[in-house]
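User: Just a sanity check before I run the rest of the batch. Below are the structure tokens for the first item. I only need the designed sequence back.
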């Protein structure tokens, strides 16, 4: 089909819109932020992705697009701050050009000068599925770089602890080792900096005791960050996953842990008072699939601080090599009482089974082979 250049202004940002019978999604032309996304689950429509409690025209235009447009999911290349370029890279801050739009896909393009690469962003959906297939195709990139996808979900409408948050088995996990939300910046955090943990239900608090990170929203007035390094894929478990059970549905993502070795939880619950946050970014949860050293910039990630543990924090790209970084993000209805997801496994080639902590199971149509 021919290219469609029409843009729709959504939450203050001109956006490309793709709509099928089960999924409606928007992607900002500047920054390539995916949100809102509406999934049609039977008679119900759900929109799990976050939109910041401000719009681009309501905050200081000198702020990076990352913050003025902040919403949903976006590509970070490199991941984290940069000294002479925008945080999370031009891919999260500059304009993407539309190459093609069909009834089921969007294809966008950018040549980010900060990394000297060619990047194509493909977003596609399939008939009968409530899933988004996200593919970032990278060429001409030379050297060691961190990167990640950065989904932000909005749980602010839920009662405290009502959202259930889990990830696939991990072999190493830690709270951010320094000040993620420094008091000197008018910010606050609850978790003990640098604390290691093996169970999301028992993560050390700075004030003593532990927190259960599988329940959110929690710890109001704080912004915290943790990192979990996923177990490698196996024949029985060919992908890693993250999942959030909300009010009657589950949002989940699937990935290849060789491409995205770690998952970050950014728990943003009013812990930042500086503009544009002003303590109003609450109940938001970033579930970020990364190859990075926490949220630190690419120069820190290149130090390979976890090398002795066999944990990569950068990927070595070659300019004559094309790399495809793929993730699936999806939603499915769950019955009343469905608890935290304990596992997501293949069910043939075209579906997955999600099992909760009590053994209850739901099946969702997803071509999980896409991430492999």
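Assistant: Here's the designed sequence for the first item:
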């Amino acid at each position: 089909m021919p290219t469609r250049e029409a843009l729709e202004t959504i939450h203050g940002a001109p956006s490309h819109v793709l709509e099928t019978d089960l999924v409606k999604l928007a992607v900002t032309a500047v920054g390539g932020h995916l949100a809102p996304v509406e999934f049609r689950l039977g008679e119900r429509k759900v929109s799990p992705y976050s939109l910041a409690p401000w719009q681009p025209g309501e905050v200081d235009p000198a702020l990076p697009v990352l913050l003025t447009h902040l919403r949903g999911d976006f590509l970070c290349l490199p991941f984290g701050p940069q000294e002479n370029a925008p945080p999370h890279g031009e891919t999260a801050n500059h304009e993407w050009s539309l190459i093609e739009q069909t009834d089921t896909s969007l294809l966008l393009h950018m040549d980010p000068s900060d990394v000297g690469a060619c990047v194509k962003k493909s977003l596609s959906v399939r008939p009968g599925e409530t899933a988004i297939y996200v593919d970032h195709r990278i060429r001409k990139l030379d050297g060691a770089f961190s990167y990640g996808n950065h989904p932000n979900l909005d749980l602010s409408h839920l009662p405290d602890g009502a959202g259930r948050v889990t990830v696939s088995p991990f072999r190493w996990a830690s709270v951010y080792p320094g000040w993620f939300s420094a008091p000197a910046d008018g910010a606050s955090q609850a978790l003990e900096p640098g604390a290691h943990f093996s169970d999301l239900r028992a993560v050390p608090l700075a004030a003593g005791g532990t927190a259960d990170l599988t329940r959110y929203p929690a710890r109001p007035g704080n912004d915290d960050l943790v990192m979990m390094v996923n177990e490698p894929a196996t024949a029985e478990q060919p992908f890693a996953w993250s999942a959030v059970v909300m009010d009657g549905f589950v949002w989940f993502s699937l990935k290849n842990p060789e491409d995205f070795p770690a998952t970050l939880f950014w728990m943003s619950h009013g812990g930042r008072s500086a503009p544009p946050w002003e303590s109003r970014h609450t109940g938001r949860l970033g579930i970020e699939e990364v190859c990075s050293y926490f949220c630190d910039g690419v120069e820190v990630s290149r130090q390979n601080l976890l090398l002795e543990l066999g944990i990569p924090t950068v990927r070595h790209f070659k300019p004559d090599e094309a790399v495809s970084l793929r993730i699936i993000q999806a939603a499915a209805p769950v019955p009343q009482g469905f608890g935290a997801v304990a596992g997501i496994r293949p069910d043939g080639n075209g579906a997955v089974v999600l099992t909760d902590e009590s053994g209850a199971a739901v099946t969702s149509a997803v071509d999980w082979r896409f991430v492999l």
